[in-house]
């Protein structure tokens, strides 16, 4: 271990000199960077299973399907694939997309299963893997669509006797949400077919209008963990064929692709924990901290 040595001269610590106050922020190092939590140890199972079968196998024999939370995990996946000698194209990991679960704009902690609502035929289909917001048509049925598209929208106002406010200004979904929150309560949410009918009776509009239901795509891991990290292949996920709701990793690149969950593939499980090594910048910061403590002690 390298030890910093300081001049054996009391004047060194009394000297006045300019200095830089260094504050570590999330912009410089991502959250958790300095502590670097331990990571899962992965192994590849060379048996072809559907995603659900793979999940069951991992839970019965180790912990769960692999969760990938940072670049280090991605590298370990490739190392595990190399050790196995597997020549397959891709293998399941624990990421999946819950296409039937939607969140309410007014309370993101609440989730709504929209199966009971009145949908346009063959919807929602998450076309191109990018339709994560809902509009209601002038006939009162729902469709999922690209959130950046400008539409009129319906606000909910709990201070207004009519409750529903039709805004005939075309905005994207997120802009409509901000407008409703600034001037009313929030975008109108739908929890049931009864509420859907109530809106249809209460308002008349032309075209399509945004409502306050949206989806967090690819936010669910089999083991229940949460992570904002992603490593998708370019153009992925695209939901080609409208039935790709499980993620697999390409064994030659480590990039992710969306696949049909019923396909049979090898898969990654995880077990135990392995300790990651500290980033060299962490050692530098620890040395700087030691120096500051010495200076503080000399000053006192």
UniProtKB/TrEMBL annotation:
SUPFAM superfamilies named in the record: C-type lectin-like (SSF56436)
Domain (C-type lectin) ranges: 42-156, 159-270
Organism superkingdom: Eukaryota
InterPro entries: C-type_lectin-like, C-type_lectin-like/link_sf, CTDL_fold
Pfam families referenced in this protein's UniProt entry, alphabetically: Lectin_C
Gene3D superfamilies in UniProt: Mannose-Binding Protein A, subunit A
PROSITE patterns cross-referenced by the UniProt entry: C_TYPE_LECTIN_2
Protein name: C-type lectin domain-containing protein
Gene source species: Salarias fasciatus (Jewelled blenny)
């Amino acid at each position: 271990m390298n030890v910093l040595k300081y001049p054996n001269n009391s004047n060194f610590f009394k000297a006045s000199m300019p200095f830089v106050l260094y504050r570590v922020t999330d912009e410089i190092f991502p959250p958790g960077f300095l502590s670097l939590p331990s990571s899962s140890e992965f192994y590849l199972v060379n048996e072809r299973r559907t995603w659900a079968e793979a999940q069951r196998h991992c839970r019965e024999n180790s912990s769960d399907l692999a969760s990938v939370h940072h670049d280090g995990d991605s590298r370990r996946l490739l190392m595990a694939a190399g050790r196995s000698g597997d020549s397959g194209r891709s293998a399941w990991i624990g990421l999946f997309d819950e296409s039937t679960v939607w969140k309410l704009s007014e309370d993101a902690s609440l989730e709504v299963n929209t199966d009971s609502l009145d949908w346009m035929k063959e919807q929602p289909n998450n076309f191109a893997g990018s339709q994560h917001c809902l509009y209601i048509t002038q006939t009162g049925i729902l469709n999922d669509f690209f959130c950046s598209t400008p539409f009129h929208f319906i606000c909910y106002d709990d201070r207004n006797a009519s409750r529903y406010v039709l805004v005939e200004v075309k905005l994207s979904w997120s802009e409509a949400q901000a407008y409703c929150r600034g001037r009313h309560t929030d975008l109108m949410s739908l929890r049931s077919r009864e509420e859907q009918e109530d809106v249809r009776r209460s308002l008349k509009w032309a075209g399509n209008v945004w409502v306050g239901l949206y989806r967090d795509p690819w936010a669910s891991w089999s083991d229940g963990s949460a992570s904002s990290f992603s490593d998708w292949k370019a153009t992925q996920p695209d939901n080609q064929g409208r039935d790709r709701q499980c993620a697999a990793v390409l064994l030659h690149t480590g990039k992710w692709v969306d696949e049909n969950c019923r396909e049979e593939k090898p898969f990654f499980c995880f077990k135990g924990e392995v300790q990651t090594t500290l980033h060299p910048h962490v050692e530098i910061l620890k040395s700087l901290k030691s120096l500051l403590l010495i200076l503080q002690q000399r000053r006192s």
